[in-house]
Amino acid sequence: DLHAPGLDQIFIVCMAMEDWLQAHPKHVLVLHSRGDKGQLGVLLASYIHFSNMAASADLSLDHFAMRRFYNDKLSTLMTPSQKRYVWMLGG
């Protein structure tokens, strides 16, 4: 399925990711895709935008590393509609 997930689904996943990471400083996220890596890119890029709305200064380097990974590895795999959803979520 090459379609971007719905904005409501993206928001729910971003909230769950944020809640998990904020619950304990040693919590990490592992994202896995059995198929379309473009959808994984949508979720990762959406979370980067989402978390910047509530990010603290000490997380800025982590966000930079995530952004670099997205730009280098995932953005080329995404369809235009998937990229559009990411930017829509980012406001």
From TrEMBL:
<dbReference type="GO" id="GO:0005925">
    <property type="term" value="C:focal adhesion"/>
</dbReference>
<protein>
    <submittedName>
        <fullName>Tensin 3</fullName>
    </submittedName>
</protein>
<dbReference type="InterPro" id="IPR029021">
    <property type="entry name" value="Prot-tyrosine_phosphatase-like"/>
</dbReference>
<dbReference type="InterPro" id="IPR051484">
    <property type="entry name" value="Tensin_PTEN_phosphatase"/>
</dbReference>
